[in-house]
Amino acid sequence: MKVINSYIFEPGDKLYYVNQEASVFSIELTEEILGISDDRNPSLIGDEGYVFKPFEPVRTYDDYGRLYLWKKESRWVGRGMGAGFETRYINEVSNIFVEEKSAFNYAEILKKYNKKKEFFRSYSKIEIKHAKSERLLNSLSFSSYSLIEVLKLKNLYKEEGTPIKVVVLDKEGKEYDYLKIQKELEKFI
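RE: above sequence
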């Protein structure tokens, strides 16, 4: 069973926003942000442009404590004299938190994820070559899925008795020994 928390925020309440670089920012809610000012037009929050739907409860999305907010989409509808401005609110999971501790915990997770993503972007592919003739036997893109495939292929070539050499290529084509890269991968496991 999962408990779903729901909040109704007021001006002066504090929330914590985590951006894509894993920096945490404190946000003090105002009438403008909440959309309860005279114009009833909520202000955008964060780089992603989240908004509060006026007078609507907000619930938490997951165990991290991220809030389920909205993105505001406005457009003209109709033609001529019957034209009007329509506003829709689309639910979206935000990187905004009620508790500061939850925001910093999520920021740490996001930092690790960003480092892992950057690591996988720094290499382009994995090549499996014959150890003696240097003939290319197989080539895979460098991704977490490919690492499982490399294990399968290593076992297959071992069963066949084929001596192999596994190398990883970076974006410039420079070769690195797979065992060296594998040690770096252990940081992310």
